[in-house]
Amino acid sequence: MEKLNKNKKNRLKDFHRFLDEAGDTTFYGKGKKNIIGTNGVSNVFILGMVKVNNPLDDVRNKIYLLQQKIINDPFYQVPSVLKKNTNKGYYLHATDDIPEIRKEMFDLIKSINCSFEVIVGRKNIERYETKHKGKEEYFYADLLSHLLKNKFTKYNKLVLHISERGKSTKNHNLELALAKAEQRFNNNDKDSNIKTEIVFNVNYPTLDPLLCLADYFCWTIQRIFEKGEIRYYSYLTEKIKLVIDLYDVENYNNWANYYDKKNPLTSKNKISPPKH
């Protein structure tokens, strides 16, 4: 019986995924002015998914212990840590963390058996107004649908733990993304049937430390597209399974907008801010 329970616990990791994002879904400023790529506004929005191949509770505990270490270490008593700890509790977040904390988290990620895949959405006003009807949540749903469209055949059930993001992660918008993903699956593979039931669990990184993994991976990819900085990507490259630059129409031929170990990202993937 003990062996059966252990095997069941180990199988849990097979049908759970953890999703977070980087960048923002802001397109307009005051007076509906295009502010893509201006100070504090990203050129891309990134949505990524982590699969953990170690027992989930073991990895959760590793991240939790690192967070406790940071809280209790006098060296890390900096505003970004103190503010979070005073409010809802400290959690690892790459954008806010100081470089020393990031290094500790990157080293922890290196020790975990996991894989990451991500969709990068370039922000474009014309596409936003036509394809996404000028709604940030539709932009989010479109990216999520591409992340899910090849996830319908391997497992009976897939649980997606998603970091909360306002309207974008409301149930009706997640169901919209799922419907789009199913449509794309059916269009691409007419000979296969949908086997996998996909369900969503919207959560917060303060409640599930595994969401911090997805956050750090997404931030790593964001640094390339926004800054041309590849050192974090190079450090984790063996764990990054696939990066899709979704709207890079110039590279659609021969799947050149799909990046993996054979076609790695470089500093040349940095996106220049659009001309306003």
Q: List the secondary-structure elements in sequence, H or E.
A: HEEHHHEHHEHEHHEE
CA-CA gap between termini: 65 Å
The CATH topology is Nucleotidyltransferase, domain 5
- In total, the number of domains comes to 1
What portion of residues is helical?
25-40%
Total strands = 7
* Protein structure class: alpha/beta
What general form does the structure show?
A: globular
Secondary-structure topology with pairs:
Layout: H1 2-11, E1 16-23, E2 44-52, H2 56-72, H3 79-86, H4 99-110, E3 114-122, H5 125-130, H6 136-148, E4 157-163, H7 171-188, E5 197-203, H8 210-227, H9 231-236, E6 240-245, E7 258-259
Parallel strand pairs: 1-4, 3-6, 4-5
Antiparallel strand pairs: 1-2, 2-3, 6-7
Helix pairs in contact: 2-4, 6-7
